[in-house]
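hey so i finally got around to running the thing on that chain from the lab meeting. sorry it took forever, my laptop kept dying and i had to restart like 3 times. anyway pasting the input first so we r on the same page abt which one it is
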Amino acid sequence: MTIKAFCIALFLCLPLSAQAALVLQHWQTPQGARVIFAESHELPILDISVDFPAGSARDPAAQAGLAQLTHILLDQGAGGLSDTTIAHRLADVGAELGGSFDRDRAGVTLRTLSSAAEKNAALDILTRVLQQPDFPPAVIKREKQRLIASIREAEADPGTVADKAFYRALYGTHPYAHDEAGDPAAIGRLTRQDLQRFYRMHYSAPNAVISLMGDLSRAEAEAIAARLAGGLSSAAAVPVLPKPGPAAATDMRIAFPSTQSHVLVGAVGVARSAPDFFPLFVGNYVLGGGGFDSRLMREVRDKRGYAYSAYSYFLPMMEAGPFQLGLQTKQAQTDDALKVAQATLRQFIADGPSEAELKQAKDNLTGGFPLRIDSNRKILEYLSLIGFYNLPLDYLDTWVDKVNAVDVAAVKQAFSRHIDPDKLVTVVVGGAR
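ok and heres what got predicted. didnt touch it at all, straight out
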């Protein structure tokens, strides 16, 4: 390994040690892109994330997989450069190009050294990927085949089968019911024109949220943001998603040749902007989010040995995301394990956590908070979250106080408002009944 390569590898692994004075800045580029920026010169690193409302919820009804395939192809040929050339140029300067994709958003990330030569070379690649994806026909064919193969392979996993069925049962005709990967038949029909049209409509400047973290000044950040937004289309911001209605009580049993049953129980939860976010977040730590400290683990695993683990979580999204409780168990004890999990949830909704449970949850959450922001990369994830979901700029500064402000009454009220134990969606994937 050369000295330059060693230094690059070292820099990319170092944590950001102190973030107490982190100041978030926010503005809009002349093209309409929203920008959020945190300046830090502790390490010679720049992290960038550019997010768009281009997740699977934006798939047209007959084109499930269009959003995912478009996102995959962004760096598979752009601005006249092949995917191989893009990879080699990034490697030459020690930069990393990545991305994220879910139901709400599609994003591209860049990590680079902040020295002028390396930064400019990396930004050139990022700019091409965002502004000039080529969608080469041969690469489209290849990536369609890969995506279809991965979906077919996932169909052999009972957990994947359960998850897809859960979202379909929970959201019905709402766009959140769309599977993130898409449908093989629909993917097979997609054309280059479909990809280009989706890209122009969704990867536009008014839709973009640009997050920057690291070793640059405000003026440099403004210039980079304007450069990244400058070559994007001017297509108007996409419409807001419809609000999902409550799901009807459902008990779905899916036969599957697996040794265990995969059990998912849940309901439509809350949006990322919901006032009840912190009471639900803290309360769920007690219920099923705190690992071995949680009630579900204690009742399902420790007392009865029905499952190796049992969990629950809220996944807030742009609109109301799911609340999900899950476990895996032997087929012969599926119904018993399910009854215990449901009873534990029902009792928690009725009584809330004890004072001791709540204190432990808050102590663990606030005590672990520094680990959530101990690196540039982790902070960038929060910046993109804050920017995309329009959260307050002081979100990180007030996080601990908001966790500490949660009391038992707030947890009980929040769970009662959002989770009706008589209207749960239940999906069991396992042996035939």
